[in-house]
Design brief:
About 35% of the residues lie in helices and about 20% in strands. Helix 3 links the parallel strand 6 and strand 7. It has a domain of about 180 residues: 3-Layer(aba) Sandwich (Rossmann fold), CATH 3.40.50. Helix 4 packs across helix 7 and helix 5 packs across helix 6. It is an alpha/beta fold and about 270 residues long. It is built from eight helices and seven strands. Strands 1, 2, 3, 4, 5, 6 and 7 form a seven-stranded mixed β-sheet that branches.
Amino acid sequence: MSNSICYENSFADIHNHGTITRISYIRCSPPRRLRPKGTLVLLHDFFKTNYQFRYVVDLFAMGGFVTIIPDLPGKHISIRHQPDARVSLDSLCSDLASFLRLDIINERVHLVGIGMGAHLASTLSSRHNSKVASVVLIDAQTSQKSTDALKFLSSMPAKIPSTVRRNAFARYLDIQSENTSLLSSEDINEYADSFSEPRVLLNMQQAYHSFQSTDCNLKDTSEPMRSLAWSPEEQPEDFTVAVLSVLKLSTPLKSTKRHSQSHTSRL
């Protein structure tokens, strides 16, 4: 039987209330020799894409889990085709709920959300619990960073050259990175390139205003949700162990191994 992890890069067109949203995603399946243990859907943070989970996708797959990582609608190449269609908490949840009903997902999923992804995971689980088995929330509390991000987005005009917009994102991400070793210049460039288009900027502004206008300070102790301190980019092994432990999907050994380039899995 195969010892290889199977990767699929694809997209799905979601039809909701006359609006078409294209959601790009990565689906990573475990080696066939492993007994499948379930499906994880990982939802990234606001200034990130599915690239945020580049170091953990292999680890989850080798643990026996089908791992699906969408680019959230309005981000990167996940786009809404109607230019006047606004991106909001409701539209994001509606699009993701339709995504969870696709044929590629044939069971209730375990949602893992970081930051904005945590808010979406919480809302999805409450509105569409027939598709959600459990939820893990990470860094779900509204912070000063959120306010800073909204100010940054609001101050950036759409009608500026894409190279200027891209370089502004890169500088902002560099400043906001608490740990200068967490994001390399290559990582920052990857994210900045993803957010350089005017339509993406507009969608980000709309989404952030929607999230800020909704009082979504989440309680870390709400069942069946938990909050974790580990970062998938800085501590991929610890992050994987902690998520599976919270979900009670395995009995993991404690990992103390730190991030290294050997774990890089470009998504």
